[in-house]
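Working notes for the structural subgroup meeting. M.R. asked for a predicted model of this chain before we commit to crystallization trials. I am recording the input and output together here so anyone reviewing the notebook later can reproduce the run.

Input as submitted:
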Amino acid sequence: MHAEVPGPFMLAAREGVPASAPEGSEMLVKAGAAETGGLFGLLEGVDRAGFSTIVHRHDVAEAWYVLDGRYRYYVDGRWFEVGPGGFVFVPAGVAHGLRCVEAGRKLTLLVPGGPEGFFRDVHGASEAGELTPDALRDIGSRYGLEALGPLPPG
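Returned structure, recorded in token form:
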């Protein structure tokens, strides 16, 4: 059961809590578990061409809506390429990763909410100069992220 949703709220463009992926995506948490009663987390990410994540999995579902650019998503051993208006859904527990092919911007939805805190905490540790491999492992474990290795070619 989810906590009670605190109430309606609104954020303008470029508003949100600063966040980032360890590989370099610049993000804003647009809605977190605290604002949605745990229902979901929503991030906006801006990525340079060549940005990529590791292959990983976690116990929440994740979805992306591509606003600009082109991305290749590696999901359960298969590659999918999407551009503006494209949508990708990954159920909880499924191995996945992504690569930005053409500089872009995307929305990331996490259901239920909570793991968006991973990106907020990575940003904080990075800003403090404390994002070591051990710190990254600790942050990942707090949010149920299991690192599986580098993305395969594709």
